[in-house]
Protein backbone atom coordinates (compact mmCIF):
# COMPACT_ATOMS: atom_id res chain seq x y z
CA UNK A 1 0.00 0.00 0.00
CA UNK A 2 1.30 3.48 -0.81
CA UNK A 3 2.11 5.52 2.33
CA UNK A 4 -0.26 8.34 1.40
CA UNK A 5 -3.30 6.08 1.19
CA UNK A 6 -2.91 5.02 4.83
CA UNK A 7 -4.87 7.98 6.13
CA UNK A 8 -8.37 9.38 5.90
CA UNK A 9 -7.04 12.80 5.14
CA UNK A 10 -7.44 13.95 1.54
CA UNK A 11 -4.44 13.89 -0.77
CA UNK A 12 -3.55 17.25 -2.27
CA UNK A 13 -0.62 18.43 -4.39
CA UNK A 14 1.89 20.49 -2.40
CA UNK A 15 1.80 22.99 -5.27
CA UNK A 16 -1.01 23.00 -7.88
CA UNK A 17 -0.39 22.30 -11.53
CA UNK A 18 3.02 20.63 -11.44
CA UNK A 19 1.98 16.96 -11.65
CA UNK A 20 -1.02 14.64 -12.03
CA UNK A 21 -2.40 12.89 -8.95
CA UNK A 22 -2.84 9.41 -10.44
CA UNK A 23 -0.94 7.18 -7.98
CA UNK A 24 -0.41 4.43 -10.57
CA UNK A 25 0.83 6.59 -13.42
CA UNK A 26 1.84 9.99 -12.03
CA UNK A 27 3.22 12.49 -14.54
CA UNK A 28 4.91 15.84 -14.34
CA UNK A 29 2.85 18.45 -16.18
CA UNK A 30 4.66 20.65 -18.64
CA UNK A 31 3.78 22.53 -21.77
CA UNK A 32 4.80 22.26 -25.42
CA UNK A 33 5.01 25.26 -27.72
CA UNK A 34 2.58 24.92 -30.63
CA UNK A 35 5.04 26.80 -32.82
CA UNK A 36 8.44 25.11 -32.37
CA UNK A 37 7.57 22.06 -30.27
CA UNK A 38 9.88 22.91 -27.38
CA UNK A 39 8.95 21.46 -23.99
CA UNK A 40 8.84 23.40 -20.73
CA UNK A 41 8.78 22.29 -17.11
CA UNK A 42 7.47 23.88 -14.97
CA UNK A 43 4.81 24.84 -17.52
CA UNK A 44 5.45 27.97 -19.60
CA UNK A 45 2.12 29.41 -20.70
CA UNK A 46 2.87 32.98 -21.74
CA UNK A 47 5.68 33.13 -24.30
CA UNK A 48 8.03 30.63 -25.92
CA UNK A 49 11.52 30.87 -24.45
CA UNK A 50 13.19 29.47 -27.56
CA UNK A 51 14.84 32.59 -29.07
CA UNK A 52 14.11 31.24 -32.56
CA UNK A 53 10.35 31.18 -31.87
CA UNK A 54 7.87 33.92 -30.98
CA UNK A 55 4.75 31.83 -30.37
CA UNK A 56 2.48 32.38 -27.40
CA UNK A 57 0.21 29.32 -27.52
CA UNK A 58 0.99 26.10 -25.72
CA UNK A 59 -0.49 22.67 -25.16
CA UNK A 60 -0.31 21.06 -21.74
CA UNK A 61 1.64 17.79 -21.87
CA UNK A 62 2.24 14.98 -19.41
CA UNK A 63 6.02 14.40 -19.50
CA UNK A 64 7.66 11.00 -19.83
CA UNK A 65 7.49 9.11 -16.55
CA UNK A 66 10.95 7.57 -16.90
CA UNK A 67 14.45 8.87 -17.49
CA UNK A 68 18.10 8.31 -16.64
CA UNK A 69 20.23 9.70 -13.79
CA UNK A 70 22.46 12.63 -14.83
CA UNK A 71 23.84 12.97 -11.31
CA UNK A 72 22.79 12.60 -7.69
CA UNK A 73 23.58 13.84 -4.21
CA UNK A 74 22.15 13.88 -0.70
CA UNK A 75 20.52 16.31 1.71
CA UNK A 76 22.27 15.22 4.88
CA UNK A 77 21.18 18.32 6.81
CA UNK A 78 17.65 19.60 7.26
CA UNK A 79 16.86 22.17 4.54
CA UNK A 80 15.51 25.49 5.82
CA UNK A 81 11.91 26.79 5.37
CA UNK A 82 9.91 26.93 3.13
CA UNK A 83 10.79 23.21 3.18
CA UNK A 84 8.63 21.43 5.76
CA UNK A 85 10.89 18.76 7.22
CA UNK A 86 9.69 15.64 8.99
CA UNK A 87 10.74 15.44 12.65
CA UNK A 88 13.11 13.89 13.34
CA UNK A 89 14.76 14.79 10.05
CA UNK A 90 15.75 11.84 7.88
CA UNK A 91 18.46 12.54 5.27
CA UNK A 92 17.38 11.86 1.70
CA UNK A 93 18.97 11.50 -1.72
CA UNK A 94 18.29 13.82 -4.67
CA UNK A 95 18.62 12.88 -8.32
CA UNK A 96 18.82 14.89 -11.54
CA UNK A 97 17.03 12.76 -14.13
CA UNK A 98 17.22 13.31 -17.90
CA UNK A 99 14.04 12.72 -19.89
CA UNK A 100 15.19 11.60 -23.32
CA UNK A 101 12.18 12.59 -25.40
CA UNK A 102 11.76 16.03 -23.83
CA UNK A 103 15.51 16.75 -23.52
CA UNK A 104 14.97 18.13 -20.00
CA UNK A 105 16.78 17.24 -16.78
CA UNK A 106 14.55 17.43 -13.69
CA UNK A 107 15.48 17.34 -10.01
CA UNK A 108 13.62 15.41 -7.36
CA UNK A 109 14.06 13.62 -4.07
CA UNK A 110 14.73 9.89 -4.33
CA UNK A 111 11.85 7.89 -2.86
CA UNK A 112 11.58 5.59 0.12
CA UNK A 113 14.89 6.30 1.85
CA UNK A 114 16.93 4.94 -1.08
CA UNK A 115 20.40 6.44 -0.54
CA UNK A 116 23.20 7.55 -2.85
CA UNK A 117 24.98 4.20 -2.49
CA UNK A 118 22.17 2.61 -4.50
CA UNK A 119 22.39 5.19 -7.31
CA UNK A 120 24.63 5.61 -10.36
CA UNK A 121 24.87 7.94 -13.34
CA UNK A 122 22.80 6.49 -16.20
CA UNK A 123 20.51 4.45 -13.93
CA UNK A 124 16.87 4.25 -15.13
CA UNK A 125 14.39 6.04 -12.85
CA UNK A 126 10.63 6.46 -12.71
CA UNK A 127 8.37 9.09 -11.22
CA UNK A 128 6.35 8.32 -8.06
CA UNK A 129 4.28 10.48 -5.67
CA UNK A 130 5.18 10.71 -2.01
CA UNK A 131 4.08 12.68 1.05
CA UNK A 132 5.88 15.98 1.52
CA UNK A 133 4.06 16.96 4.74
CA UNK A 134 0.51 16.97 6.20
CA UNK A 135 -1.83 19.16 8.18
CA UNK A 136 -5.18 18.41 9.88
CA UNK A 137 -7.06 17.97 6.59
CA UNK A 138 -4.64 17.07 3.84
CA UNK A 139 -1.64 14.99 2.99
CA UNK A 140 0.42 17.10 0.63
CA UNK A 141 2.19 15.16 -2.11
CA UNK A 142 5.19 15.88 -4.31
CA UNK A 143 7.10 13.93 -6.94
CA UNK A 144 10.05 11.67 -6.21
CA UNK A 145 12.35 9.64 -8.44
CA UNK A 146 12.70 5.92 -7.83
CA UNK A 147 15.03 3.40 -9.48
CA UNK A 148 12.84 1.38 -11.88
CA UNK A 149 14.52 -1.82 -10.74
CA UNK A 150 14.39 -0.81 -7.06
CA UNK A 151 18.07 0.28 -7.04
CA UNK A 152 21.27 -1.73 -6.76
CA UNK A 153 22.37 -3.21 -3.43
CA UNK A 154 25.80 -1.59 -3.65
CA UNK B 1 39.12 52.67 -28.94
CA UNK B 2 40.82 51.08 -25.96
CA UNK B 3 38.40 49.39 -23.60
CA UNK B 4 40.83 49.66 -20.70
CA UNK B 5 39.99 51.40 -17.45
CA UNK B 6 42.46 51.86 -14.63
CA UNK B 7 42.20 50.35 -11.17
CA UNK B 8 43.48 53.30 -9.17
CA UNK B 9 42.73 51.94 -5.75
CA UNK B 10 41.49 48.84 -3.95
CA UNK B 11 40.23 48.27 -0.42
CA UNK B 12 38.58 45.58 1.65
CA UNK B 13 37.00 45.07 5.04
CA UNK B 14 38.22 41.73 6.41
CA UNK B 15 35.77 38.81 5.96
CA UNK B 16 34.28 37.29 9.12
CA UNK B 17 31.16 37.36 11.26
CA UNK B 18 31.42 40.76 12.86
CA UNK B 19 27.82 41.36 13.89
CA UNK B 20 27.70 44.88 12.45
CA UNK B 21 25.84 46.63 9.63
CA UNK B 22 26.95 46.04 6.03
CA UNK B 23 27.13 49.82 5.64
CA UNK B 24 30.09 50.19 7.97
CA UNK B 25 31.98 47.40 6.22
CA UNK B 26 31.39 49.09 2.86
CA UNK B 27 32.52 52.50 4.11
CA UNK B 28 35.74 51.02 5.51
CA UNK B 29 36.51 49.28 2.19
CA UNK B 30 35.67 52.47 0.26
CA UNK B 31 37.88 54.66 2.43
CA UNK B 32 40.78 52.22 2.02
CA UNK B 33 40.30 52.20 -1.76
CA UNK B 34 40.21 56.03 -1.89
CA UNK B 35 43.37 56.25 0.21
CA UNK B 36 45.06 53.62 -1.97
CA UNK B 37 44.10 55.62 -5.07
CA UNK B 38 45.13 58.99 -3.64
CA UNK B 39 41.69 60.30 -4.62
CA UNK B 40 39.32 62.16 -2.31
CA UNK B 41 35.69 61.18 -1.83
CA UNK B 42 34.51 64.58 -3.06
CA UNK B 43 36.26 63.91 -6.41
CA UNK B 44 34.29 60.70 -7.07
CA UNK B 45 31.76 61.30 -9.88
CA UNK B 46 29.84 58.00 -9.73
CA UNK B 47 29.14 55.57 -6.90
CA UNK B 48 28.29 52.06 -8.15
CA UNK B 49 26.89 49.94 -5.33
CA UNK B 50 26.40 46.17 -5.28
CA UNK B 51 23.08 45.36 -3.61
CA UNK B 52 22.46 42.97 -0.72
CA UNK B 53 18.98 41.44 -0.40
CA UNK B 54 19.17 40.31 3.24
CA UNK B 55 19.67 43.69 4.90
CA UNK B 56 16.40 45.50 4.24
CA UNK B 57 15.72 48.45 1.96
CA UNK B 58 19.15 50.09 2.43
CA UNK B 59 20.58 46.92 0.90
CA UNK B 60 18.41 47.22 -2.25
CA UNK B 61 19.68 50.76 -2.85
CA UNK B 62 23.26 50.12 -1.76
CA UNK B 63 24.82 52.78 -3.98
CA UNK B 64 22.83 55.55 -2.30
CA UNK B 65 23.27 53.97 1.13
CA UNK B 66 27.06 54.09 0.78
CA UNK B 67 26.94 57.60 -0.73
CA UNK B 68 24.92 58.85 2.23
CA UNK B 69 27.26 57.16 4.71
CA UNK B 70 30.33 58.70 3.05
CA UNK B 71 28.55 62.09 3.04
CA UNK B 72 26.23 63.32 0.25
CA UNK B 73 28.40 64.82 -2.46
CA UNK B 74 26.07 65.03 -5.43
CA UNK B 75 27.83 62.13 -7.19
CA UNK B 76 25.82 60.06 -9.67
CA UNK B 77 24.62 56.76 -8.25
CA UNK B 78 23.73 53.24 -9.37
CA UNK B 79 22.68 50.15 -7.45
CA UNK B 80 22.96 46.72 -9.11
CA UNK B 81 22.02 43.19 -8.24
CA UNK B 82 23.10 39.95 -9.94
CA UNK B 83 23.18 37.46 -7.04
CA UNK B 84 26.76 36.17 -6.65
CA UNK B 85 27.69 38.19 -9.74
CA UNK B 86 26.48 41.47 -8.20
CA UNK B 87 30.01 42.87 -7.97
CA UNK B 88 30.61 42.38 -11.69
CA UNK B 89 27.36 44.23 -12.42
CA UNK B 90 28.56 47.21 -10.36
CA UNK B 91 32.03 47.12 -11.99
CA UNK B 92 30.37 46.97 -15.41
CA UNK B 93 28.25 50.05 -14.69
CA UNK B 94 31.27 52.05 -13.55
CA UNK B 95 33.38 50.92 -16.49
CA UNK B 96 30.68 51.67 -19.06
CA UNK B 97 30.22 55.20 -17.67
CA UNK B 98 33.97 55.79 -17.82
CA UNK B 99 34.40 54.36 -21.34
CA UNK B 100 31.42 56.37 -22.57
CA UNK B 101 33.05 59.52 -21.26
CA UNK B 102 30.20 60.17 -18.83
CA UNK B 103 32.58 60.26 -15.89
CA UNK B 104 36.32 60.09 -15.23
CA UNK B 105 36.47 58.39 -11.85
CA UNK B 106 34.07 56.05 -10.07
CA UNK B 107 33.85 54.21 -6.78
CA UNK B 108 32.56 50.60 -6.79
CA UNK B 109 31.43 49.15 -3.43
CA UNK B 110 29.92 45.84 -2.39
CA UNK B 111 29.29 44.77 1.20
CA UNK B 112 27.26 42.15 3.03
CA UNK B 113 26.26 41.02 6.48
CA UNK B 114 25.29 37.36 6.05
CA UNK B 115 22.90 35.18 8.06
CA UNK B 116 24.00 31.92 9.69
CA UNK B 117 23.64 28.57 7.95
CA UNK B 118 22.05 27.76 4.58
CA UNK B 119 20.93 30.63 2.42
CA UNK B 120 17.12 30.46 2.15
CA UNK B 121 14.63 32.36 -0.01
CA UNK B 122 12.94 35.51 1.23
CA UNK B 123 9.52 34.99 2.93
CA UNK B 124 5.95 34.35 1.74
CA UNK B 125 4.33 31.61 -0.39
CA UNK B 126 5.57 32.21 -3.95
CA UNK B 127 5.16 29.10 -6.16
CA UNK B 128 6.01 31.20 -9.25
CA UNK B 129 9.51 31.88 -7.87
CA UNK B 130 11.86 29.00 -8.77
CA UNK B 131 13.95 29.79 -5.70
CA UNK B 132 10.97 29.35 -3.37
CA UNK B 133 9.69 26.32 -5.27
CA UNK B 134 12.88 24.27 -5.11
CA UNK B 135 13.19 24.68 -1.34
CA UNK B 136 9.52 24.02 -0.63
CA UNK B 137 8.66 21.13 -2.89
CA UNK B 138 11.95 19.17 -2.92
CA UNK B 139 14.15 20.50 -0.08
CA UNK B 140 16.83 21.50 -2.58
CA UNK B 141 19.46 23.84 -1.08
CA UNK B 142 22.49 25.46 -2.72
CA UNK B 143 24.82 22.57 -1.69
CA UNK B 144 22.48 20.20 -3.58
CA UNK B 145 23.75 21.68 -6.86
CA UNK B 146 27.38 21.56 -5.67
CA UNK B 147 26.89 17.88 -4.79
CA UNK B 148 25.38 17.07 -8.20
CA UNK B 149 28.31 18.65 -10.08
CA UNK B 150 30.86 16.93 -7.80
CA UNK B 151 29.29 13.49 -8.21
CA UNK B 152 29.12 14.00 -11.97
CA UNK B 153 32.92 14.66 -12.00
CA UNK B 154 33.47 11.42 -10.08
CA UNK B 155 31.26 9.33 -12.36
CA UNK B 156 32.41 10.88 -15.65
CA UNK B 157 36.06 11.85 -15.04
CA UNK B 158 37.09 9.62 -12.14
CA UNK B 159 37.56 12.45 -9.64
CA UNK B 160 37.83 11.38 -6.00
CA UNK B 161 36.77 12.94 -2.71
CA UNK B 162 40.52 13.26 -2.02
CA UNK B 163 40.87 15.48 -5.11
CA UNK B 164 38.12 17.74 -3.79
CA UNK B 165 39.75 17.84 -0.35
CA UNK B 166 43.10 18.69 -1.99
CA UNK B 167 41.54 21.92 -3.31
CA UNK B 168 40.70 22.96 0.25
CA UNK B 169 44.20 22.03 1.41
CA UNK B 170 45.75 24.14 -1.38
CA UNK B 171 43.50 27.15 -0.83
CA UNK B 172 43.94 27.05 2.95
CA UNK B 173 47.72 27.31 2.40
CA UNK B 174 47.29 30.15 -0.09
CA UNK B 175 45.13 32.20 2.28
CA UNK B 176 47.27 31.63 5.37
CA UNK B 177 48.84 35.10 5.28
CA UNK B 178 46.00 37.02 3.64
CA UNK B 179 44.99 39.69 6.19
CA UNK B 180 41.45 39.91 4.73
CA UNK B 181 40.73 36.17 4.85
CA UNK B 182 38.34 34.85 7.50
CA UNK B 183 39.94 31.39 7.86
CA UNK B 184 43.72 31.50 8.19
CA UNK B 185 44.56 27.99 9.26
CA UNK B 186 46.12 25.07 7.40
CA UNK B 187 43.63 22.30 6.70
CA UNK B 188 44.67 18.69 6.04
CA UNK B 189 43.10 16.10 3.72
CA UNK B 190 42.07 14.25 6.87
CA UNK B 191 40.33 17.36 8.28
CA UNK B 192 38.19 17.65 5.15
CA UNK B 193 37.46 13.95 4.79
CA UNK B 194 36.47 13.60 8.46
CA UNK B 195 34.18 16.66 8.48
CA UNK B 196 30.47 15.84 8.27
CA UNK B 197 28.88 14.97 4.94
CA UNK B 198 26.55 17.78 3.79
CA UNK B 199 25.70 16.98 0.17
CA UNK B 200 27.28 13.70 -0.88
CA UNK B 201 30.14 13.50 -1.96
CA UNK B 202 30.91 16.88 -0.36
CA UNK B 203 31.86 17.37 3.27
CA UNK B 204 31.34 20.49 5.36
CA UNK B 205 34.88 21.68 4.64
CA UNK B 206 34.31 21.25 0.88
CA UNK B 207 31.59 23.92 0.98
CA UNK B 208 32.19 27.61 1.54
CA UNK B 209 30.73 29.49 4.49
CA UNK B 210 28.68 32.69 4.33
CA UNK B 211 30.53 35.75 5.63
CA UNK B 212 30.37 39.44 6.35
CA UNK B 213 32.80 41.46 4.28
CA UNK B 214 33.26 44.34 1.86
CA UNK B 215 35.39 45.26 -1.12
CA UNK B 216 35.78 48.48 -3.09
CA UNK B 217 37.56 49.77 -6.19
CA UNK B 218 38.39 53.23 -7.48
CA UNK B 219 38.20 52.99 -11.28
CA UNK B 220 39.11 55.75 -13.72
CA UNK B 221 39.75 56.54 -17.34
CA UNK B 222 43.32 55.94 -18.54
CA UNK B 223 43.64 59.74 -19.06
CA UNK B 224 42.63 60.46 -15.46
CA UNK B 225 44.99 57.70 -14.27
CA UNK B 226 48.01 59.24 -15.97
CA UNK B 227 47.74 62.21 -13.60
CA UNK B 228 47.40 60.05 -10.48
CA UNK B 229 49.43 56.87 -10.92
CA UNK B 230 52.32 55.23 -12.75
CA UNK B 231 51.52 52.08 -14.71
CA UNK B 232 48.24 51.27 -12.96
CA UNK B 233 46.64 47.84 -13.23
CA UNK B 234 44.04 47.90 -16.01
CA UNK B 235 40.72 46.17 -16.36
CA UNK B 236 40.87 44.89 -19.95
CA UNK B 237 37.52 43.09 -20.08
CA UNK B 238 34.33 42.57 -18.09
CA UNK B 239 32.01 39.74 -19.08
CA UNK B 240 28.44 39.82 -17.77
CA UNK B 241 26.98 37.28 -20.22
CA UNK B 242 23.73 35.36 -19.93
CA UNK B 243 23.42 31.73 -21.08
CA UNK B 244 22.89 30.73 -24.71
CA UNK B 245 19.67 28.78 -25.32
CA UNK B 246 19.03 26.07 -24.37
CA UNK B 247 20.83 26.07 -21.02
CA UNK B 248 20.76 22.29 -20.70
CA UNK B 249 22.88 21.91 -17.55
CA UNK B 250 20.89 22.09 -14.32
CA UNK B 251 21.52 25.46 -12.65
CA UNK B 252 20.71 26.92 -9.27
CA UNK B 253 17.87 27.68 -8.39
CA UNK B 254 15.99 25.76 -11.09
CA UNK B 255 14.19 22.44 -10.75
CA UNK B 256 14.68 21.68 -14.44
CA UNK B 257 16.85 22.59 -17.43
CA UNK B 258 15.78 24.10 -20.71
CA UNK B 259 14.76 21.49 -23.30
CA UNK B 260 17.34 20.56 -25.91
CA UNK B 261 14.83 18.35 -27.76
CA UNK B 262 14.23 20.82 -30.58
CA UNK B 263 17.28 23.13 -30.56
CA UNK B 264 20.00 20.63 -29.67
CA UNK B 265 22.67 21.65 -27.13
CA UNK B 266 24.00 25.26 -27.28
CA UNK B 267 27.19 26.11 -29.20
CA UNK B 268 28.89 26.87 -25.90
CA UNK B 269 27.82 26.01 -22.35
CA UNK B 270 26.98 28.87 -20.00
CA UNK B 271 29.90 28.41 -17.64
CA UNK B 272 32.31 28.02 -20.56
CA UNK B 273 30.97 31.19 -22.14
CA UNK B 274 31.64 33.43 -19.12
CA UNK B 275 35.45 33.68 -19.30
CA UNK B 276 35.39 32.99 -23.05
CA UNK B 277 33.62 36.29 -23.66
CA UNK B 278 36.11 38.12 -21.42
CA UNK B 279 39.04 36.61 -23.33
CA UNK B 280 37.46 37.68 -26.62
CA UNK B 281 36.99 41.23 -25.40
CA UNK B 282 40.53 41.55 -24.01
CA UNK B 283 42.33 39.92 -26.92
CA UNK B 284 44.11 37.72 -24.40
CA UNK B 285 43.72 33.97 -23.93
CA UNK B 286 44.05 31.47 -21.10
CA UNK B 287 47.72 30.97 -22.07
CA UNK B 288 48.41 34.65 -21.28
CA UNK B 289 47.10 34.39 -17.71
CA UNK B 290 49.50 34.37 -14.75
CA UNK B 291 46.80 33.53 -12.22
CA UNK B 292 43.06 33.04 -11.80
CA UNK B 293 40.56 33.76 -9.04
CA UNK B 294 37.62 31.38 -9.47
CA UNK B 295 34.40 30.99 -7.51
CA UNK B 296 35.00 27.93 -5.30
CA UNK B 297 31.57 27.74 -3.69
CA UNK B 298 32.63 24.12 -3.35
CA UNK B 299 36.04 22.52 -3.80
CA UNK B 300 34.77 20.43 -6.72
CA UNK B 301 33.47 23.53 -8.51
CA UNK B 302 37.03 24.89 -8.64
CA UNK B 303 37.95 21.85 -10.76
CA UNK B 304 35.03 22.55 -13.11
CA UNK B 305 36.25 26.14 -13.52
CA UNK B 306 39.77 25.00 -14.56
CA UNK B 307 38.16 23.53 -17.66
CA UNK B 308 35.50 26.19 -18.14
CA UNK B 309 38.09 29.02 -18.17
CA UNK B 310 40.32 27.11 -20.56
CA UNK B 311 43.22 26.12 -18.29
CA UNK B 312 42.91 22.50 -19.45
CA UNK B 313 40.60 20.30 -21.55
CA UNK B 314 37.50 18.74 -19.95
CA UNK B 315 38.47 15.85 -17.69
CA UNK B 316 42.05 17.06 -17.06
CA UNK B 317 41.41 19.31 -14.05
CA UNK B 318 42.35 16.65 -11.49
CA UNK B 319 45.69 16.14 -13.22
CA UNK B 320 46.38 19.89 -13.24
CA UNK B 321 45.67 19.98 -9.50
CA UNK B 322 47.62 16.81 -8.64
CA UNK B 323 50.65 18.09 -10.60
CA UNK B 324 50.68 21.25 -8.48
CA UNK B 325 50.13 23.49 -11.51
CA UNK B 326 47.41 25.51 -9.75
CA UNK B 327 49.37 25.98 -6.51
CA UNK B 328 51.43 29.16 -6.02
CA UNK B 329 54.75 28.31 -7.70
CA UNK B 330 52.97 26.26 -10.38
CA UNK B 331 52.20 27.21 -13.98
CA UNK B 332 48.84 28.90 -13.30
CA UNK B 333 48.09 29.45 -9.62
CA UNK B 334 44.35 29.44 -8.91
CA UNK B 335 42.88 31.30 -5.94
CA UNK B 336 46.14 32.64 -4.51
CA UNK B 337 43.94 34.76 -2.21
CA UNK B 338 42.72 31.57 -0.57
CA UNK B 339 39.42 31.80 -2.45
CA UNK B 340 36.02 31.28 -0.91
CA UNK B 341 37.56 28.40 1.04
CA UNK B 342 39.36 31.00 3.19
CA UNK B 343 36.89 33.86 2.87
CA UNK B 344 33.39 32.42 2.85
CA UNK B 345 30.94 34.21 0.59
CA UNK B 346 29.94 37.85 1.10
CA UNK B 347 27.69 37.89 -1.96
CA UNK B 348 27.80 41.46 -3.35
CA UNK B 349 31.44 41.97 -2.37
CA UNK B 350 32.90 38.77 -3.76
CA UNK B 351 33.40 39.59 -7.46
CA UNK B 352 34.90 42.94 -6.40
CA UNK B 353 37.22 41.18 -3.94
CA UNK B 354 38.44 38.96 -6.79
CA UNK B 355 39.54 42.11 -8.66
CA UNK B 356 41.23 43.46 -5.49
CA UNK B 357 43.32 40.28 -5.39
CA UNK B 358 44.27 40.51 -9.08
CA UNK B 359 45.31 44.11 -8.49
CA UNK B 360 47.55 43.30 -5.52
CA UNK B 361 49.06 40.37 -7.46
CA UNK B 362 49.74 42.44 -10.59
CA UNK B 363 51.28 45.21 -8.48
CA UNK B 364 53.55 42.58 -6.91
CA UNK B 365 52.21 43.41 -3.47
CA UNK B 366 50.35 40.25 -2.43
CA UNK B 367 52.42 39.63 0.64
CA UNK B 368 52.86 35.98 1.61
CA UNK B 369 50.99 34.75 -1.48
CA UNK B 370 52.64 36.56 -4.40
CA UNK B 371 52.58 34.92 -7.83
CA UNK B 372 56.02 35.73 -9.26
CA UNK B 373 56.05 37.96 -12.32
CA UNK B 374 52.26 38.17 -12.60
CA UNK B 375 51.28 40.10 -15.75
CA UNK B 376 47.61 39.23 -16.27
CA UNK B 377 44.84 37.48 -14.41
CA UNK B 378 41.26 36.38 -14.83
CA UNK B 379 38.37 36.16 -12.39
CA UNK B 380 35.27 34.07 -12.91
CA UNK B 381 32.04 33.84 -11.01
CA UNK B 382 28.39 33.12 -11.65
CA UNK B 383 25.21 34.50 -10.13
CA UNK B 384 22.05 32.42 -10.03
CA UNK B 385 19.30 33.06 -12.60
CA UNK B 386 21.93 33.39 -15.36
CA UNK B 387 24.48 36.07 -14.42
CA UNK B 388 27.95 35.57 -15.82
CA UNK B 389 30.86 37.41 -14.22
CA UNK B 390 34.45 37.51 -15.41
CA UNK B 391 37.06 40.26 -15.27
CA UNK B 392 40.48 40.29 -16.91
CA UNK B 393 43.17 42.55 -15.46
CA UNK B 394 46.61 43.20 -16.90
CA UNK B 395 49.61 45.49 -16.55
3D structure, described in words:
The complex is a heterodimer of chains A (154) and B (395). By secondary structure, chain A is mainly beta. Chain A has no helices and nine strands. In chain A, strands 5-6-7-9-8 form a five-stranded mixed β-barrel. In chain A, strand 8 (124-134) and strand 9 (138-147) form a beta hairpin. Chain A is globular and about 50 Å long. The mean pLDDT of chain A is 92. Chain B folds into two domains: 5-117 and 213-233, Thiolase/Chalcone synthase (Peroxisomal Thiolase, Chain A, domain 1, 3-Layer(aba) Sandwich), CATH 3.40.47.10; 130-208 and 235-394, 3-Layer(aba) Sandwich (Peroxisomal Thiolase, Chain A, domain 1). Helices cover 37% and strands 18% of the residues of chain B. Chain B has 14 helices and eleven strands. In chain B, a hairpin with a 2-residue loop joins strand 5 and strand 6. Chain B is globular. The two termini of chain B are 18 Å apart.
Task: State the gist of this model.
The complex is a heterodimer of chains A (154) and B (395). Chain A has 154 residues and is mainly beta. Chain A has no helices and 9 strands.
Mean pLDDT of chain A: 92
Mean model confidence by pLDDT of chain B: 96
| Spatial strand order of the main sheet of chain A | 5-6-7-9-8
Please provide the count of β strands of chain B: 11
Strands ordered across the widest β-sheet of chain B: 3-2-4-7-1-8-11-10-9
| Oligomer designation | heterodimer
Question: How far apart lie the N and C ends of chain B?
Answer: 18 Å
Helix content of chain A: under 10%
Strand and helix order of chain B: EHEHHEHEHHHHEEEHEHEHHHHEE
Which percent range describes the beta-strand content of chain B? 15-25%
* Class of secondary structure makeup of chain B: alpha/beta
**Main sheet makeup of chain B:** 9 strands, mixed
- Assign the CATH superfamily of the largest domain in chain B: Thiolase/Chalcone synthase
